[in-house]
Amino acid sequence: MHPVKTRAIIVLIAVLALNFAVAGSAAASVITVSNTDQAADFTSIQAAVNAANPGDEIIIKPGTYTENIEINTSLTILSESGSPADTIIQAADSSKNVFSIWANGVKIKGLTIKGSGSASGVHFFGVADCFLEHNILSNNRCGIDLYMFSSGNTLINNNISDSLTGISLSESLNNNIKSNSVSHCKIGISLFDSAKNTLENNTVSENDKGFSLTGESNGNLLVSNILKYNNQAGLRIYETSNNLIYNNYFNNTVNVESGQVAGENTWNTTRSGSTNIVGGPYLGGNFWGMPDGTVYPRGVRDIDLDGIFDSPYDIESSGYTDYLPLKESNSTVITVSNSEDQVADFSSIQSAVDNSYPGDTILVYPGVYVENIEIGVKDLSLISAPGSPSDTIVKAASGLDNIFSVTADGVEINGFHITGNISFPDSGIHLYEVEDCRIENNELFISPNYLFNSSGGSAQAAGNNSGVIPGFGVRLDLSGNNILDNNTISYSHAGILLRNSGGNMLLENRVSSSSYGIWVDSSVDNMLDSNLAADNKIGIYLKASGRNSILNNTALNSSGSCINLWDSSENTLNDNIASNSSNVCIILHNSSENNLSNNTASSSSYGIWLESSSNNNSLSGNGALYNNIGIYLKDSDKNKLGNNTASNNSKYGISLWNSVKNDLIKNTASYSEVSVILHNASMNVMASNTVSNSNYGIWLDSLSNNNTLVENEVSGNKIGIYLKASGNNVLTANSANLNTLYGIYLNSATGNTINTNRIVSNSGYGMYLLNSRNNKAYDNYLNNTKNLYFDSKSSANLWNVSKRSGANIAGGSFTGGNFWASPERSGFSQTHQDADHDGICEMAYVMGKGNVDYLPLAGSI
């Protein structure tokens, strides 16, 4: 029950005045009460209270008392027997509190208090220093209610049940709630606008919600409480801040239900030596479990056995973090050895598994264990005793089954050499419908007789295994949130296969000599980080998979492709190295909306290849080096290429083939046959690229129409910009300088617009036209020994627009034609008069064969 914050000022003043009244200086008395035939001073508790003076003690003899009692005096009420079982206070009026406390320093101990279905068992109003101990409260609307600035009170060792709220604090400060048991309530213990209280060593179970902290309930301490089997949430926390919550035992289907957070709460204390709530030797954070036996964080070890997991816990993905989560110390270490020299509990791993319980550790001593092992025990850790796989070997007894079959959550397999002639579709380790497992530091050689033909990209087998397809190294089916870390896997169909599995982490694994290094199939939200895939047919393969992160991996020496996305979208590929593929480093097939950044693709036929409607991808900061073709887009549209480097590729640096509406911005392409080529590629934008030191800088070929080239730097090539059989393109503000043959070359090109370009110091011609008509060139700056060549078929080109006001490329105040200069300062624009100083020569520049610049720009520059 949450009251509003309205302050009843007048009532509160009256109550406080009453609490501080002095009722005389008589010595404390003992008053007895009995409503049976036992001798006593009074037959009702209320009569005794009315007669008592401050400091008196009221002893209640066994019996059932049907009353509603108001206390306005500092006094103590005790059961004579000390047991609440035989001294029962039943509400006479269920709409009123059983006890209403209006005075400071009241103590109540050893009673059963019940039956106030519409009010409270014990209700405190604005009081301090009261003490409730060893009472049973049941069937009240609220068991114990601290209200309106009730502070410094202690509730200890009370048992409260079957109420709407077990213990309620509203606008009450600095109270101590300790060692109480609260069950079968809607809310076990509720704090509303109540700060700086201590909740310690309480057991709150089988309620709808265990603890509830709402409003301005800030700065509270929750320590060493047990919150278990609460139906909706162990702890509801809403709008509160600066609470310290540690050494609690959470075991609920939902442990923390969080809402709007006004500030930060702290979920662990500094690690210190002291027995914690689950028997470990150190205090730290909290224990996090679920009624089905699951313990969080999953798949995390306690290597130093200090009773604290070695990784933080993001509490149910709420954003709250327990940095020192506790681990139960009741697990057993089971030993395995098949050597006569080593005493152990079992001689086979399967026997140890069959005799284990959740949370146990199986320690396997060096040896060769010929087994196929099934693990169905949750949170089981299976570890080689040396911690190294070199001398702890598990060899398949049967090649027609998995070596390890895992069907339980939270299993760890660490430090084994796992080998056998396993056939498709079985695996060295198979995880099926599991979560939070950890596969770490293992070596898997699935088919030692399996020979991988890296040059041909196919597999063959030696000896008796001819024609047999090997199985998988580690295979996950329908499994999530598992970690595969630091494993070495070779000679398999796929080193690691994820199928219909999400949220897994693959870290620092080495996969080699397989058809597929890592294969992610129909799986989302996985992370592949810092893995090495070498000498496979395909290094890393994503099929029909989205939202995966492929980061910092190295894939090399592949006979097919290093990294391959097939029908896969919304993935992130960052900072990977892919090299030495016989075919392609990174390929996307029908894969859209992926982000590729800062990858290096080198020394292969193709560096990065997008094909078959791989649309709307982003490529930024990638390096495509020493390939035949650096970056290749085929039948792929609306991609964005920015700040990539395509260098030293023997044929093409960047190639767009049958692709439209792509953006190429601020890329660098150099030292290739063609730095950038567009073939039958239209409506693309190339802006601010740097293209140099190739035979062709930018080449638009075969109906590459309606493209826009703006502000590109094209220099040091044989031919800077080459348009062949392509029309209606716009070339604006580009620099085509220092090319050894031509700055801009048009061959059978029609309807293009070339304006505001700088075409300077090209050794052959600035512009070279063959069979090119109806192009428009104006406001360009040409300064070459030979500025222009055109053949007899290159006619009807326009070399100026109508004179109009506006700065031109030579600094004049009108736009018209082009600026024609030469290094010897003998160009037409440099030698012809501009009498009216409008920046345009008075005479037209007649170049022959119908090519005339009627408004050549003027100037001496």
Brief summary of the model shown:
This protein has 861 residues and is mainly beta.
Q: How would you describe what is shown here?
A:
InterPro entries: Beta_helix, Carb-bd_sugar_hydrolysis-dom, FHA_dom, NosD_dom, Para_beta_helix_rpt-2, PbH1, Pectin_lyas_fold, Pectin_lyase_fold/virulence. It comes from Methanosarcina mazei (strain ATCC BAA-159 / DSM 3647 / Goe1 / Go1 / JCM 11833 / OCM 88) (Methanosarcina frisia). Pathway: Protein modification; protein ubiquitination. This protein is mainly beta and 861 residues long. It has a domain at 9-27 and 83-298. 3% of the residues lie in helices and 41% in strands. It is built from four helices and 96 strands. It has a 19-stranded parallel beta sheet. The protein has an 18-stranded parallel beta sheet. The longest helix has 11 residues, at 9-19. The chain is elongated. The termini are far apart. Residues 1-26 and 451-466 have low confidence and may be disordered.
